[in-house]
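Fill-in record for Glycosyhydrolase.
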Amino acid sequence: MACSQQIISEKSLPGYFALIDPQNVPVICTDPGDKDLVQRAAGFLRRDLNAVTGREAEIMKQPPASARTVVILGTIDSSETIQKLAAQKKIDISKLKNQWDAYLIQAVEHPMEDVANALVIVGSNKRGVAYGVFELSRQMGVSPWYWWADVPVKKKSEIYIKSNTQLTDAPKVKYRGIFINDEAPCLTGWSDEKFGGRNHKMYEKVFELLLRLKGNYLWPAMWRDRFFEDDPLNAQLADEYGIVMSTSHHEPMMRNANEWKRHGKGEWDYETNGQSFRDYWKKGIERMGGRESIVTVGMRGERDRPMTKDGTPIELLTRIINDQRDIIADVTGKPASETPQLWAIYKEVQDYYDKGMQVPDDITLLFCDDNWGNIRRVPKAAEMSRPGGSGVYYHFDFVGGPRSYKWINSNSISRIWEQMHLAYEHNMRTIWIVNVGDIKPMEFPISFFLDYAWNPEKISASDLPHYAVSWAADQFGENFGSQIGKIIFEYSSLNNRPKPEVLDVDIYSLHNYDEAQRVTREYKNLLAAARRAGAQLAPEYEAAYFELVLHPVEALANLNELYTTIALNRDAATRKDPAANTLADKARELFANDEALSDKYNSLLGGKWNHMMDQPHIGKGEAFRMLEKQQMPEVKYAPADSPPITAAPAAVLPSTSQKQIPGGAKGNIFYEADAVVSMNAENYSRASNANGIEWTIIPGIGRTGAGLTIFPVTASVQSPGKKGSPCVEYEFYTYSKDDVTIHGYFCPTLNFRNAPKGLRYAISIDDEVPQIISINQDGRRKTWEKWVAYNIIIPSSKHRIATSGRHVMKFWLVDAGPVVQKFVLDFGGMKKSHLGPPETLFKNFEPAFFESAQEVLP
């Protein structure tokens, strides 16, 4: 996915040579003095070639004289063969010099005497060779997820290479990795059963996956484990695989948190027990040795809590980091600045940063999101050129408030893209690390995160739906990419309206806008599409399709129907309607079906993934704790002898202003319906770009569609209302007049610049003076909890229009960063709902909601 240039064909074409055909199997050549990972990469290539074609390639030091085609692997500094080919100007390695993790794949005619063709894969370092090999494997038909998601290898009898192939690639972000976290009960139960724990047998699978995804960095599982102590081969193999190891944001000096329980002496208090910590940390750096690592510096309280209950201990933390750097220098025998380090600006540590705490410039500032995918800070302008740079610690999974979420993928790649684009444009390019929980079932967002980290400049906002299609094609074949990709893209957007763990009986309205029933229908329609697509796949794809597509869609459709059914049950029981009893029984069936779906996942392929779906996810529990077990929500029964229910009065049809819209009107025009005008932000009537600023639509980022923002995200503050200032306009017609409230629906973007008034927008109707409104100035915890739980911020403004009829609403972003999803103009008719009123777009008149509406003229 990270590289789109195709270099192989299954057919013999002009300008191609055979890698494998009925008469030819390539010889794989490596220099015996080259790195361990180069030798491993050769083994992986031989295995992948066999998996694709059924043919066995040999690995040799030099090709035999009779070789027709060879594949040569090597690094620029350790392979004599590569150096010789470069000296003979048969390959061009100039773009690899002084590059990090770069690779070259080049076809060479007559690379040596008696050899017709070679495919040369060169790395600027050992990882570069592996990335080149796995790029070739991916194009041959081996998914990075062949083992972790059981994606079948796409069989081919012949493989041909484009003769003029010269593909060079290198990452834009230096360290790109994952954090295995919150791993109980799923990954721990699974790995205990399959591997006997989180040992080198399991981690070899993780290391290989990371390399196939072009990652290079890992924070290992730490809830119950000691990566470096539990199995000494863990760290050794990580180094051989080229995986840069570190410890998480709250585990300093290459010591896992659980090691303190075994080796720590005294209290977890540096002021009173400093020498014990220094001795303890020194052993961590000694154990690290010369392996590629990033040392976490700083200190938090025990069990990932604040170090002190009160105050901001900047002086103490500064002293701790200075002491840690003294240890690093003493043990390594070189300046501390020559050992990569990070300082995680996580939770309360950000308060220290905001109040002026500084660390040496060679330390990477690792900024963090709020655990819900919203970046809290970006570096100040003066920090963007620091030698240590900066990076991001991001989350796909979290245990904590306002609700733990770790059951299933609820991460929209559109939001990931928007937030990581924000990071990249603010030069946060040294480390990107994401908490992925148990790895499964986060396959799709993990792929996207690491692909985007490789080259953020190759994936634009408009590319996001295509990314899902391309990813699906890689897993299930080109013929099914479009169909399945659309399903994946849609479910990962729907699943964040809120996250499944936040979902409850009263989230969606039963009585307003047909909301609860409409959401349930959306999931049912998506499930029907997923089942149709799955039925077309060959039988060998059944397990992969269930894991990656069908299970999440089916589980989410079932969960939403469960909560809607319980809401209907309670509503009927309140009215003593006997239908409540049928609904109660149906709800219990849906609850049981949820468990059956988890059991089906756990029993796939003879139980290969047993325990991976053990996470409870239905029930209240405590807000800051993950559920210990499933809890069937309460259902109610009506008395058997309940009297007949009087039919509810017929709904009053909504009044609309559609007939005011002139015949032949063009463009997006909105109308009032039931004293409300609802407008999705991307459906503006007109947009003006100016001062180097462009309005950009981000598909799939909103709860009911796309989102709208301005780029670049580093733009300076804008002056709304001034001639030439970039704005968008929305034309609408009303039958109401006088007072109106405009509600803006925004993604829960945080005040990442720490501006006194937060991030702001401006809005006006017709010729009134624009009002400037902040979306996130209120930083109280309770307010933030509501933002992230419902995945929306809804600021409001008051306006007044003198007459009914045609009007124009104008919208400006004063600060770059906010993403608006929709606007609702409320003339007094807005009803309570989670998603807001459906859009009243004249161009896309939707019969489901307003087909029989009464027409009202002024």
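KEY FINDING: The longest helix spans residues 542-574.
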